[in-house]
Amino acid sequence: MIKLENVSKSFLNGKPAVSAVSFQVNAGETLILLGTSGSGKTTTLRMINRLLLPDSGHIYVNGDAVETQRLESLRRSIGYVLQYHGLFPHYTVAENIGVVPGLLKWDPGRIKARVSSLMEKLHLPVSDYLHAYPQQLSGGQQQRVGLARALAADPPVLLMDEPFGALDPVTRTSVRKEFRALDEIQHKTIIMVTHDVQEAFELGTRICLMDKGKVQQTGTPAELLFSPANDFVRSFFDEHRFVLELKALTIAGLRPWLANLNGDDTLTVWDAIAAGMPRNILLDAVDQYRQSKQMHGTS
Ligand SMILES: Nc1ncnc2c1ncn2[C@@H]1O[C@H](COP(=O)(O)OP(=O)(O)OP(=O)(O)O)[C@@H](O)[C@H]1O
User: What region holds the ABC transporter domain (predicted)?
Assistant: First the structure.
């Protein structure tokens, strides 16, 4: 679990980079920090693993204030994934993935088994890549190694800063899909920075939308779309609104208008249409949901 209470940070020019940010992320949740460039997302993330110190406010990781934890044990309880993987160029794939288990003094057999298992899960054939060096890998493969390294010691918390940002769109989609399907991440507390709205909707349990260092709204994708807290939130999603609505709403959420439709309740409307469920009925239900929210908002 991660909790931020009124966290603020200014740099030398005195302008606040982050102002009174508060949120809580529970185990099993992925919170997306979304926002325009310079809105304070990375600064917020870097305060959680104490790469930066806040000027005021409190940050708790797994129940303890970060400033009271030994830096070494705090960092080992947190997997950190960066946009440009940050692999050690003179370490092989196996050595890169095994760094933290090595520091934790796991026995070599256990490290080897863990490295192989993560490589298989991330579609990096062990026979081809175990002893390869980062520069011998494609960008997508390097990023997979970066993910495997962050997951190696099974940390309860994962911080990810634009983890798929350096990849081309096709590779990005496939690495993102693999990441989402990993059993490894299902019980972790994850915070991910992105400015890609589609990615935020695909991966986020909840989204924290920031602007000018302040949280504008934290909520589920559907809450941000259908019950925006202010004009900034409302207009932020305008460009992609229709597709986002279909990705944010599930059959379960539309049940009041889909009583007679058979189908998997967990599917998003987007996936349900792709799976061949009746498009007109689904889009009609989305319209009715939207109207019910508008009525609720103006009552
Ligand atoms: N080390 C630093 N020294 C001075 N100013 C900084 C530093 N790091 C960040 N800032 C400033 O703090 C503000 C927030 O930056 P931050 O990197 O947190 O934003 P961001 O939302 O992550 O942006 P992006 O999406 O472009 O990475 C910006 O105005 C930035 O210029």
Answer: 2-237
The answer to ipTM > 0.85 is: yes
Other beta carbons within 10 Å of 232: 17
C-alpha of residue 161 to centroid of ligand 1, in Å: 13
- How many domains in the chain? 2
Which pTM was predicted?
Answer: 0.91
Q: What angle do CA 192, 26, 30 make, to 5 degrees?
A: 25
Ligand 1 is surrounded, with C-beta below 6 A, by 11, 17, 35, 37-43, 195
147 three-state secondary structure: helix
Task: Report if residue 291 sits inside a domain.
Answer: yes
Residue 36 token pair: 């325009």
In a domain, 74, yes or no: yes
Query: Do both 168 and 254 map to the same domain?
Result: no
Nearest atom, ligand 1, residue 195 CA: 25
17 lies in some domain = yes
Closest-CA residue, ligand 1 atom 7, reads: 11
Continuous H helices in 159-262: 169-181, 197-203, 221-226, 231-236, 241-248
Per-residue model confidence as pLDDT tens for the chain (299 residues) = 999 999 999 998 888 999 999 999 999 999 999 999 999 999 999 999 999 999 999 999 998 999 999 998 898 889 998 877 689 999 999 999 999 999 999 999 999 999 999 999 999 999 999 999 999 998 889 989 999 999 999 999 999 999 888 788 888 888 888 888 898 898 999 999 998 998 999 899 999 999 999 999 999 999 999 999 999 999 999 998 999 999 999 999 999 999 888 889 999 999 999 999 999 999 999 999 999 988 766 44
